[in-house]
Specification:
This protein has 16 helices and 13 strands. With about 450 residues, it is an alpha/beta fold. It has three domains: about 5-55, Transferase, Pyrimidine Nucleoside Phosphorylase, Chain A, domain 3; about 80-155 and about 195-325 and about 435-454, Nucleoside phosphorylase/phosphoribosyltransferase catalytic domain (Pyrimidine Nucleoside Phosphorylase, Chain A, domain 2, 3-Layer(aba) Sandwich); about 335-425, Pyrimidine nucleoside phosphorylase-like, C-terminal domain (Aldehyde Oxidoreductase, domain 3), CATH 3.90.1170. The protein has a four-stranded mixed beta sheet, sandwiched between helices. A four-stranded antiparallel beta sheet has the order 6-9-11-7, with helices on both faces. α1 (about 5-15) packs parallel to α3, α5 (about 95-105) crosses α14 (about 305-315) and α9 (about 180-190) crosses α10. The longest helix is centred in the middle third of the chain and has 17 residues, at about 215-230. The radius of gyration is 22 Å and the shape is globular. The chain binds uracil.
Length: about 450
């Protein structure tokens, strides 16, 4: 017999700081999908959760209800491992770590998102490669994954449709920045991919959604605990996002920087984060004795060129033009560039990373409205990073824009010089530590015996 609940009573219970049961949460979410719960009732519950929180059990109930609102894949093998980032500026690590992990024998199912706010999206970036198909069906996703070992597709309505609806409501009701709601949103999508383990890159700093380290740690804990309750091997890595990762920001520019990194010519910070995340995937898959051993294997795959070949394969598998690996002129690029030069001598001490991300969006590298078309060619290249010495007149960054955008580029340059890149005369502290915290938990049932001879 179906238990009868009332939306009013459930909202009231959470408003008054009560604990919701699995049945209540599940009834509410399935009602939302069926159209029995109105958007204003869901919005009220979201605000009650935002203000009064959800404990670990309630977070798991919400994740479960959102997960089973759509299709759930299941791959019994242990070697299917995914990675997800909470989003940042210039974060192109997926294009490096996925081929590295695949070259080490990990199967990588990646369902990635588009740009959100000031942060770029993996799917927008890869679409800078002519012909690359991201709107494949779930059946094609499974076939490619099983046959080729690595696949990258965009969000589909078949995976966690409740998240799509709830996210749209959160976006307009000021309820995004809630740890249980972020956990359920991310994990419902990740768990549906059927991977046996997930490596989460949780960004912190002024370019991240979780600006404070303490909040990032709480989110990491919530995500790990929730993953474990669904029997997944979990690793959370908190990484700094107080300046763009690497030097390139913008879709084509980030693809070029990713390929350069796969050719062992990448920036140190991007290479370090990518190797740590890829090493984590190798470890969670049971193909390394420890995270350190995973990083060593990942380094070998990068340095040998095996990962570059895997990236070439990925592009080919999904219909993209593989020639871009050796000929960057085949990627969309602007003919015009505009240098932003320092007006004083000193040291770069900090950046407004979020503002830098927004400049790229404004140029057309991201969307201001969902209907906006992405301009793959625009963006910028950082010439200086935090801690670097700068001379008056020296280039801080180069804006890649169209000649018609000259006035906008000049405005952006003014903002960068006045406030977004802070230069002080005294020697800055060296760059903040890049990797701030790493925690790993294996699901008890999945613990892998490591062959000592490996
Ligand atoms: N990314 C998601 O998918 N969901 C959130 O709530 C925040 C970031």
């Amino acid at each position: 017999m179906t238990q009868m609940f009332s939306a009013y009573n459930i909202i009231q219970k959470k408003r008054d700081k009560g604990k919701l049961s699995k049945e209540e949460v599940s009834w509410f979410i399935s009602g939302l999908i069926k159209g029995d719960i109105a958007d204003y009732q869901m919005s009220a519950l979201l605000m009650a959760i935002y203000l009064n929180g959800f404990d670990k059990d309630e977070t798991v109930y919400l994740t479960d209800a959102m997960l089973y609102s759509g299709k759930v894949l299941n791959f019994p093998e242990q070697i299917f491992i995914d990675k997800h980032s909470t989003g940042g500026v210039g974060d192109k690590a997926s294009f490096i770590l996925a081929p590295i992990a695949a070259a080490c024998g990990v199967k990588v199912p990646m369902i990635a998102g588009r740009g959100l706010g000031h942060t770029g999206g993996t799917i927008d970036k890869i679409e800078a490669i002519s012909g690359f198909k991201t709107d494949i069906s779930l059946d094609q996703f499974v076939t490619l994954l099983k046959d080729r070992g690595m696949v990258l597709m965009g969000q589909t309505g078949e995976i966690a449709p409740a998240d799509k609806k709830i996210y749209a409501l959160r976006d307009v009701t000021a309820t995004i920045e809630s740890i249980p709601l972020i956990t359920a949103s991310i994990m419902s999508k990740k768990l549906a991919e059927g991977a046996k383990g997930i490596v989460m890159d949780i960004k912190t700093g002024n370019g991240a959604f979780m600006a404070k380290l303490n909040d990032a740690k709480k989110l990491a804990d919530s995500i790990r605990q929730t993953g474990l309750r669904f029997n997944k091997n979990m690793m959370t890595i908190i990484t700094d996002m107080s300046e763009p990762l690497g030097c390139a920001v913008g879709n084509s520019l980030e693809i070029i920087e990713s390929i350069e990194t796969l050719k062992n010519n990448g920036p140190a910070d991007l290479t370090e984060v990518s190797l740590s995340l890829a090493g984590g995937m190798v470890y969670l898959a049971g193909l390394a004795k420890s995270h350190k051993d995973g990083i060593a294997k990942a380094t070998l795959a990068l340095e040998s060129g095996a990962a570059l070949e895997k990236f070439r394969e990925l592009i080919g598998n999904q219909g993209g033009d593989k020639r871009i690996i050796d000929d960057y002129s085949l990627l969309p690029q602007t003919k015009f560039q505009f240098e932003v030069n320092s007006t004083k001598n000193g040291f770069v001490t900090s950046m407004d990373c979020k503002a830098l991300g927004m400049h790229s969006v404004l140029l057309g590298g991201g969307r201001q409205k969902t209907s906006d078309k992405i301009d793959f060619a625009v963006g910028f290249i950082m010439n200086k990073k935090i801690g670097d010495k700068v001379k008056k007149g020296e280039c801080l960054l180069t804006i890649h824009c169209h000649e018609s955008q000259l006035a906008m580029a000049k405005d952006i340059a003014q903002a960068i010089i006045k406030k977004d890149i802070v230069i002080k005369s005294t020697k800055a502290r060296s760059r903040k530590k890049l990797i701030l915290d790493i925690q790993t938990k294996f699901a008890p049932k999945l613990k892998t015996k490591i062959n000592k001879s490996r």
